Amino acid sequence: MFKYCLECDWQMSTADGYTEEEISEKAIEHFVETGHTVDSIRLPPPIVLQN
User: Residue ranges per domain, the chain?
Assistant: First the structure.
Protein backbone atom coordinates (compact mmCIF):
# COMPACT_ATOMS: atom_id res chain seq x y z
CA MET A 1 0.00 0.00 0.00
CA PHE A 2 1.20 3.48 -0.86
CA LYS A 3 -0.62 6.52 0.53
CA TYR A 4 0.22 10.04 -0.53
CA CYS A 5 -1.05 13.57 -0.15
CA LEU A 6 -2.51 15.34 -3.17
CA GLU A 7 -1.48 18.74 -1.79
CA CYS A 8 2.03 18.31 -0.32
CA ASP A 9 4.95 15.86 -0.26
CA TRP A 10 3.60 13.60 2.54
CA GLN A 11 3.71 9.88 1.70
CA MET A 12 4.06 6.46 3.33
CA SER A 13 4.43 2.96 1.92
CA THR A 14 4.48 -0.66 3.04
CA ALA A 15 7.63 -0.90 0.91
CA ASP A 16 9.31 1.24 3.60
CA GLY A 17 8.49 -1.32 6.31
CA TYR A 18 5.26 0.17 7.66
CA THR A 19 2.14 -1.94 8.18
CA GLU A 20 -1.11 -1.06 6.41
CA GLU A 21 -2.60 -0.15 9.80
CA GLU A 22 0.25 2.26 10.60
CA ILE A 23 -0.08 3.90 7.20
CA SER A 24 -3.85 4.31 7.56
CA GLU A 25 -3.49 5.84 11.04
CA LYS A 26 -0.83 8.29 9.84
CA ALA A 27 -2.92 9.21 6.78
CA ILE A 28 -5.88 10.04 9.02
CA GLU A 29 -3.61 12.07 11.31
CA HIS A 30 -2.23 13.97 8.30
CA PHE A 31 -5.76 14.75 7.09
CA VAL A 32 -6.93 15.90 10.53
CA GLU A 33 -3.86 18.09 11.06
CA THR A 34 -3.73 19.66 7.59
CA GLY A 35 -7.11 19.12 5.91
CA HIS A 36 -5.20 17.75 2.90
CA THR A 37 -6.65 14.99 0.72
CA VAL A 38 -4.84 11.64 0.92
CA ASP A 39 -5.10 8.99 -1.80
CA SER A 40 -3.69 5.45 -2.02
CA ILE A 41 -2.41 2.83 -4.45
CA ARG A 42 -2.11 -0.89 -3.79
CA LEU A 43 1.43 -2.28 -4.07
CA PRO A 44 2.09 -4.09 -6.29
CA PRO A 45 -0.61 -2.84 -8.67
CA PRO A 46 -3.25 -5.44 -9.48
CA ILE A 47 -2.76 -7.53 -12.61
CA VAL A 48 -5.32 -6.84 -15.32
CA LEU A 49 -6.47 -9.96 -17.13
CA GLN A 50 -7.58 -9.59 -20.71
CA ASN A 51 -9.76 -12.10 -22.56
Answer: 2-41
This model's pTM is above 0.90: no
| DSSP per residue, 1-49 | -EEEESSSS-EEEGGGT--HHHHHHHHHHHHHHH---EEEE-SSPPPPP
State pLDDT tens for residues 2-34.
999 999 999 999 989 999 999 999 999 999 999
Spatial contact of 50 and 39, defined as CB atoms under 8 Å apart: no
